[in-house]
Amino acid sequence: MTVHIALLRGINVGGKNKIKMADLRDALAAIGLEDVQTYIQSGNILFTSDEDEQTLRSRIEQRIEEVFGLPIRVIIRTADEMRRIAANCPFSAEQLAAAAASEQGESLYVSMMLEEPLSDRLEKLQAFVSEEELCHCEGRDLYLLFYQSIRNSKLAVKAEKLGVHSTVRNWNTVNKLVALANAMEAVK
Q1: 165 DSSP 8-state letter
Q2: CA–CA gap between residue 116 and residue 122 (Å, rounded)
Q3: Rounded (10°) angle between helices 53-68 and 21-29
Q4: Domains plus CATH for the chain?
Q5: How are strands ordered across the β-sheet holding 74-78?
Q6: Name one Pfam family in it (predicted).
Q7: pLDDT tens, residue by residue, 168-186
Q8: How far is CA 119 from its chain centroid?
Q9: SS in 3 state form for 53-108?
Q10: Using CA atoms, how far apart are residues 43 and 55, in angstroms rounded to an integer?
């Protein structure tokens, strides 16, 4: 059985699309997903299954709509894919240290996309890269580094308009999901 991580977009944000994690775990266990666990309230679900990504995504999205009445997009990565994301940060130690020193809070994020964005859209995104806002796309994953807050970032806004469904997680969450996936695999 493969450990998968389902990342829900836009739940429990600003009082909208509220889903209790216990209810979500129960709903997904009821459709046959095994070892279901969640991490924080923003919709990070770890589980095991032998089904392929497209089937899992469809089943999870359908179940969330049935049970909670919400049309939520789901991005899925395997534990191996999430480990690769964490291991392949494209930014240098110096860049990360400089961003951490100038930023209040998180500075490194990964936008995980349903599919690779078109190259012309990525080229347009490069116009918003600056000394204070950097990005690097690796397949379906877009790494974002901010020396200032993500909240007022033009790059972050434009990254949302790449024409593919995505959801963003900060670097701490990425690494925590890797640790949780590793722990799940160790038990198997």
Answers
A1: -
A2: 10
A3: 120
A4: 2-83+177-187 (3.30.70.1280), 85-170 (3.30.70)
A5: 34-39, 44-49, 2-8, 74-78
A6: DUF1697
A7: 999 999 999 999 999 999 9
A8: 21
A9: HHHHHHHHHHHHHHHHCCCCCEEEEEHHHHHHHHHCCCCCHHHHHHHHHHCCCCCE
A10: 19
- pLDDT surpasses 90 at 48: yes
Mean pLDDT of 103-109: 78
> Any long-range contacts for 25-30 (C-beta under 8 Å, 24+ apart)?
27/63, 27/64, 27/67, 27/68, 28/60, 28/63, 30/63
DSSP string, 113-146: ESSPPPHHHHHHHGGG--SSEEEEEETTEEEEEE
Reduced DSSP (H G I as helix, E B as strand, rest coil) percent helix, strand, coil of the chain, to 5: 45, 25, 30
